Amino acid sequence: MKFFIDNLPIIFPYDRIYPEQYAYMCDLKRTLDATGHCVLEMPSGTGKTVSLLSLIVSYQQFYPTKRKLIYCSRTVPEIEKALAELKRLMAYRIKFAETAEQKVKEESFMGLGLTSRKNLCIHPDVSKEKKGKVVDARCRDLTNSAACEKGRADPGSVELCDWHENLGKGEPGSLIPPGIWTLADVLQHGRENKTCPYFTVRRMMPFVDVIIYSFHYLLDPKVAEQVSKELSKDAIVVFDEAHNIDNVCIESLSIDLTRPMLDSAARSVVKLGEKIEEIKKTDAAKLQDEYARLVEGLQESVADASDEDAFMANPVLPDDLLKEAVPGNIRKAEHFVAFLKRFVEYLKTRMRVLHVVAETPLSFLQHLKDITYIERRPLRFCAERLQSMIRTLELNRLDEHSALQKVASFATLVATYEKGFLLILEPFETDNATVPNPIFHFTCLDPSLAIKPVFEHFSSVVITSGTISPLDMYPKMLQFTPVVQETYPMTLTRNAFLPLVITRGSDQVAISSRFEVRNDPAVVRNFGSILIEYSKIVPDGIVAFFPSYLYMESIVAAWNDMGILNEVWKNKLIFVETPDANETSIALENYRRACDNGRGAVLLSVARGKVSEGIDFDHNYGRAVIMFGVPYQYTESRILKARLEYLRDAYRIRESEFLGFDAMRNAAQCVGRVLRGKTDWGLMVFADKRFARADKRAKLPRWINQYITEVASNLSTDMALTLSKLFMRTISQNPNENQTGVSLWTLEDIEKAQAKQKEQALLMEQQQEQEDDMDVDYGDGGIDDDVILGLDV
Amino acid sequence: MPTTLCSAKASYKKQAGTLELTDSHLTWTQEGKKVPAVRVPHLEASSLFCSKEGAAQVRLKLGLVNDEAGHNFTFTSPSAVAHVEREAFKQELTNIISRNRSAAPTPLQKPTPLSTPAKTPAPIPSTSRATSVASDSRTPILSGIDAATDFRLRKKVLLSNPELLALHKELVMSGHITESEFWDGREHLLLAEAAAEGQKRGRPGQLVDPRPQTVEGGEVKIVITPQLVHDIFDEFPVVAKAYNDNVPNKLSEAEFWKRYFQSKLFNAHRASIRSSATQHVVKNDPIFDKYLEKDDDELEPRRARNEVSDLFINIGATLEDHVETGNEKDVTMQAGRQRGALPLIRKFNEHSERLLNSALGEVPPAKRRRIDSGIDDDEDAYAQITLDDLRDPEAMSGITLQMQDRERYFEGQLARSASEQAGGEVVDVRAAFAELKHGFRGWETRFSQFRIDKKAGDAALDSMTQNVSARLDIRTRKTDLPPTLFRQLTTCQTAANEFLRQFWTSLYPPPTTTSSGATPSQTAAKAAKMAGYLSKTREKVEALVRAGQLEGVEPERVEVAMKPLLDAVEHALAFYRARSAKTSTLKTA
Residue B137 pLDDT > 60, yes or no? Predict the structure, then answer.
């Protein structure tokens, strides 16, 4: 259908629209008009992605400025889904285009998705590699400009990638016909035309209207530097499913070093030294050239690198880059190698300490200087200097040197940032371990650091998710001021989902995943009996989430020994998330088959685990979700403790507040996966007595919380079962009442709502005028020019 | 007379008799009786249990498809003879059972995971653990059903539905209507029954996990049944391999099992995390330890599998989407730290997959690889993302109304509306509004003068009270019709209803009749017959009234009770008369 928001024509690829989708689009448009940032929470499964894309594409196609859309999501399944959603939208727009020119315009609209080489490679050998790092390295060996030059000049001398070579024959900018290409489509196109899908996407990026990739490509400076630096300022940035965005920010600036890594780095240093000696004999001019370049300054050497050559970008944020020449003491290759060697040796000695050390970067640098005389300034250039040297030496198989690259990144980061970071050395993995396995954590504590350049660079940043409550937490943590901050309730003509809080088993023993009681047999049995009983009454799929892998693995074993799983086997098949991603995907595939077939299955997985992110359990894939326990983070973790302390000191966020918020956003995220559309239905079972507390529930998104009744907030297992049965009986009946007009809007309903809005605006304006008469200074009534413009229409 | 495969003296429920196995049934006849007391068709046999060799009594237990408890027979001949007899029965029954199983719905050879040895070493020629009813090629479409099955289905339906049975007795047995007439219009019941019969029972989901029972004296006992043996071979092909390699050359069968259950191999197969703890107590066993595999407890599974190509559920793709960043996860969030649980978890996933494959067949690898991403795949992908309820259901194509002389209809409409328009005077809105406004003037004063007559209010209240009390009266009065009369009334009612149903269906046959290929003359004859029956209804009711009087029930009550029925019958008869009059006039004309 087609309707107008103010004067912007919106094409929405359905005949009806949910009221929340309409409201969401209005607020989104407000943000774009104001060129500001916003935080929007829209109930899961109410078509957030399609509303977002529908509005933004309409916006792009209507205004001549053609602002590019950068759409970021968390996982590849979500990226692929967003691309499919966009493809469907564009097909609809083409089909219903009113004029011929309009149709041409729609057809030339272009959208692509980007992911790693590992996921996009179709080279018969390279794509077989298991590790992404190896794929990257081998791909670079086959495609870097030096190799290409050699290979083209003298065919056969160097192995090249045919798929990449074929790409060079095409016109840049039209390597792939316009339209929307999902990742699967791009792969297919590559296979058919024998071209490289990865570089097709990379080279087409300046020409597309929409690019969809994951958070890291924008937030992680190492990747963003290569991929996203050329994006224009007026682009619209969307972070979808952004409830964990703070973690992604922190991750992108944190590094771990282990002893095997340092050993490998030391070996790499030796190899580099040998290589330098070799080159000195054969091609000393090369090193001279590099030296000369470095004396002049670093900038040009980076700028002329093409996509194929880039392998390791600077790990620090663009603003913190030093725009000056590399210090003299590491300009010479052999000096730099010696420098690296000393630094690695220093780190190795630090690792020998057998007690936990936590220190600030400043104290680390001081100690480093005292012991090794390494200054802070050359350390800051470590990553760039290494990059330049590797390029000069034309090294192959860079994956073998990845540990050294990591050390160099670590050096640069530690020397660049004083605030918001902490170094923690943990000699033992667990408290009762006796064999040391030291890890040196360099951890970022402040999520606002990594996202700051994004907010500064781009004019409109949209942060949205199904579960992003409490809303004010995000602006606080990420340090930005949104122009719009909104959460939408879910309008339903009948309750499509039933949230239940089970606080005790049928035997009245309180259940909880609290550390002290979680392994109590009574609690384990009561958790088990919840699963048994629900496997009896719920059709098709049930998904159960545990607070951690450790707990899930131990409870699965315990349940098996107690005979609980045997009872479940009688009713449903059982699938469990495993450490291996592919194995889990296969389990998931089989789980879906079992649900489709009617046999029914139970999937046991972990909140914040692999499955909880990005996999939907809509319709028959999830008729019930059971959350066993509150998914708190492991509070004994030193990194978490440091982060909590930082949040308290820097942003006045209390520890308990953050922990509760974090647990509830993850619980809500797990539970929200069951709904897709308003005809879908599902049970949401929160099994822990701590969910009954009002302060916990208040942290759930409003759209879930509003449906938790007083009765359903404190149940025993048998009471919950009775309620669930009742619910399923009612929901399985055909809905008599027409949803249209209430939870589903037709075009007329939209127009009605708009008329009402205008009336109210008019009324407010009149009031405003009256008030203005009384008090001239009183301004800012919240009506923007657009509303007044709209009135004239 | 069916041929007898074997027979023996055996007692059943402590009564002596003869057990016989024919080529279609297993029967047991009590001594001195001719009709067998137990008669089990081969198809129903699902499992077999035998008493231990050397036990005091030689017993045989047969489990049935719908009844796990089954039948227990004790061979009463002298011990040595009994054994021989039992073996004969066992042999035959095992074959029958395995035949039943292998005729399972999808007779797919279950793939043996791991590298399969050259021959599949299952001593029992059965492939699937599914205790499924052998799926005979019966289709639920009635037309193709032979008379015998049809009869059986009808019987089953009637037996499961007492009311229908009573009606059947009343009408068909008494010869009022024929069998086929009775079932005409009730095909759905038969269809449902046939479908229910045709449904196959899947494999039970439980893991094969023989748990030892502890008998007194600290000894451990595991009861081995042929069923269990088969299940073990199915679940753990390596045991089947061991069996094939060693029995009977190196080990006797009994010894084989004894050693297996004491071996590390068995402990590795047991679905328990505790078994690893008992491992050091278990003795080494040179034969079985050869077959021992390393525990599958690494983070990556030992058996590499193809990647899932569906990007919507590919979790691995996300891991490889960008370089690893950030600090290591805390201890609780590192998957696979409980290494003991990993083999167990893998076992669950594999077991579930095996069950699924046994029912649905393997996922063809072609489907996994998404090579031809044509339109179909797009549709498939869209199906996963579209919101169905946002589609306008009314926008679907309706059924166009077929009308004769459509133009005339519309012309007529047009003409009429035109004439109306011409005749209808144009209303002056302004004047009408003014008039209305005038009419409203002073409504407040008039409203205050408004009085309601007391009498009318009282009357209304009165009637309401009466209504309530009447209802209450009825509610409190019990249905005190004598039970025999009441039963008669209901039978009369249902019979008449059935006649009515037959009558109307013969006049207005449903548009999609599946079975009745009756000619118009037949239906007319049927209608006449039904009308004849219906016309007798009044007499019947009168007889009931009289009978009621004898039992002391006021005739009015019976009449009231039967009134709606009589009305319906009257209506039908009137209609029939009118119709037949019309047809006769037509004919005469």
Answer: no
Q: What is the CA radius of gyration of chain A?
A: 29
Average pLDDT estimate for B135-148: 51
- A659 with A644: CB under 8 angstroms? yes
Residue range of the domain that includes A65 = 2-109+209-249+449-487
Residues A223 and A310 reside in one and the same domain: no
Residue ending a domain, among B361, B394, B413, is: B361
**If DSSP states are collapsed to H, E and C, what string results for B111-136?**
CCCCCCCCCCCCCCCCCCCCCCCCCC
- In a domain, residue A426? The reply is no
CA–CA dist A228, A206 (Å, integer) = 10
| pLDDT tens digit sequence for A579-590 | 999 999 999 999
> Is the CB of A570 less than 8 angstroms away from the CB of B381?
no
Do A506 and A396 lie in a common domain? no
Whether residues A338 and A470 share a domain: the answer is no
Length of chain B measured in residues: 589
Residues B486 and B572 in one domain: yes
Same domain, residue pair B171 and B127: no
Task: Specify the pLDDT at position B272.
Answer: 65
Closest-CA distance of chain A to residue B375, Å: 11
Q: For the ranges A76-85, A561-570, A651-660, B45-54, which has the lowest average pLDDT?
A: B45-54
CB A499 within 8 A of CB A707: yes
Q: Which of B301, B294, B296, B340 is nearest to A550 (CA)?
A: B340
Residues B190 and B215 in one domain: no
Which pLDDT value is given to residue A633? 94
pLDDT tens column, A132-167: 899 999 998 898 888 888 888 888 888 889 899 888
Same domain, yes or no: A98 and A239 = yes
User: What is the full DSSP assignment across B387-401?
Assistant: -GGGS-GGGS--PPP
In a mutational test of the A interface, the residue from B313, B342, B360, B362 whose CB has the highest number of chain A CBs within 10 Å is: B313
Is A169 part of a structural domain of the chain?
A: no
Q: Look at chain B and report how many structural domains it folds into.
A: 4
| Contact assessment for residue A48 and residue A42, using Cβ atoms and an 8 Å cutoff | yes
- Which chain A residue is nearest to residue B345, measuring alpha carbons? A576
For residue B21, give its domain range: 4-102
Structure tokens at A609: 């685990």
User: What CATH number did the domain enclosing A685 receive?
Assistant: 3.40.50.300
* CB-CB neighbors (< 8 A) of A744 in chain B: 389-390
**Domain-terminating residue out of A704, A731, A758:** A731
Yes or no, beta carbons of B342 and A579 under 8 Å apart: yes
Residues B61 and B16 in one domain: yes
Q: Which residue of B has its CA nearest to A584?
A: B315
Mean pLDDT, residues B111-126 taken together: 35
Predicted TM-score (pTM) of the model is 0.75
- Burial tier of B22 (Cβ tally within 10 Å: 0-12, 13-18, 19+): middle
Residues constituting chain A: 793
- Quickly state the pLDDT bin for B336 (edges 50, 70, 90): confident
| Domain annotation covers residue A623 | yes
Q: pLDDT-derived band of residue B301, with 50, 70 and 90 as boundaries?
A: confident
Q: What is the mean pLDDT of residues A331-339?
A: 92
In a domain, B89, yes or no: yes
Of A487, A512, A538, the residue that ends a domain is: A487
B216 in the same domain as B355: yes
Does B439 reside within a domain?
no
Assembly ipTM: 0.89
Query: Are B222 and B350 in the same domain?
Result: yes
**Highest mean pLDDT pick, A75-89, A164-178, B278-292:** A75-89
Residue of chain A minimizing CA distance to B201? A599
Strands A460-465 and A682-687: unpaired
Exposed, middle or buried: residue A792 (CB in 10 Å: 0-12, 13-18, 19+)? exposed
Helix (H) or strand (E) holding B26: strand B25-30
